[in-house]
Specification:
Blueprint: H1 3-50, E1 59-63, E2 68-73, E3 76-82, E4 87-88, H2 99-102, E5 109-119, H3 120-124, E6 133-141, E7 146-150, H4 153-156, H5 168-184, H6 200-209
Antiparallel strand pairs: 1-2, 2-3, 3-5, 4-5, 5-6, 6-7
Helix pairs in contact: 1-5
């Protein structure tokens, strides 16, 4: 190819892909704003219903900036983080064989929102060594088609990327599924043999700063999470 043809090819590639990614990114930003509203709405509704039952139960929404929002549900904290980049489905993904994407490969580019579950005390007491879990990730393309990869109901209720389009009601359902999963995902006592040795420094850290690592599945030492995706 000569210089002019190369330049034209580069120009078209940059133009097409950059415009596409901007479209996807703009769309995920709009949906994340709707998601923030949904989180606040769900939080306020639960808080109103529970406030007369037990004032110790705290439901609290927090807007943590352009790319993050949090919903505390009693002892659990759900963190929703929007990624600043646009992603393309892996070439091995079976979605590429569907007519929906094969007719227009641009449909295989998505914005991403990760959903994490932490213990609220991990943030409250600044226990930076504590572990959280990625319980779901939400993909949305520029046409508002979406799917969720995740744990239990998050993994099988929202996997029809070809036909499903995101809206406020769908976001409500996803948030409710995330809360249900987190509340059912309890902090378990670790096997005694896994935590029967501790250093002087670790004990001091617990006493001074609550720094000994805690996670839902194995308490002080996180080894694995056998909960199937």
């Amino acid at each position: 190819m000569d210089y002019k043809k190369n330049q034209e090819l580069l120009f078209n590639l940059i133009k097409d892909k950059s415009v596409l990614k901007q479209d996807v990114f703009s769309n995920i930003i709009l949906n994340f704003k709707v998601l923030k509203g949904v989180l606040k709405e769900i939080g306020d509704d639960l808080n109103n219903k529970l406030s007369d039952i037990d004032e110790r139960i705290i439901i609290e929404y927090k807007d943590s900036g352009e790319f993050e929002a949090q919903l505390r549900v009693s002892g659990d904290l759900l963190v929703f983080q929007m990624h600043s980049n646009v992603f393309k489905f892996d070439p091995e993904n079976s979605l590429w064989k569907t007519s929906y994407i094969s007719e227009n490969i641009n449909r295989g580019y998505c914005g991403l929102i990760n959903i994490y579950n932490f213990l609220n005390d991990s943030f409250k007491y600044n226990r930076s060594n504590d572990l959280g879990y990625l319980i779901g990730r939400l993909f949305i393309n520029h046409e508002n088609h979406f799917m969720v990869q995740g744990k239990r109901q998050l993994g099988f209720l929202y996997n029809d990327f070809i036909n499903a389009t995101i809206d406020k009601d769908k976001l409500k359902s996803i948030v409710q599924s995330a809360i249900l999963y987190s509340l059912d995902f309890d902090l378990l006592v670790p096997n005694y043999d896994l935590v029967n040795k501790v250093s002087v420094n670790e004990v001091k850290q617990v006493g001074d700063h609550h720094k000994l690592r805690t996670a839902k599945r194995l308490g002080f030492v996180f080894e694995s999470n056998n909960d199937e995706i």
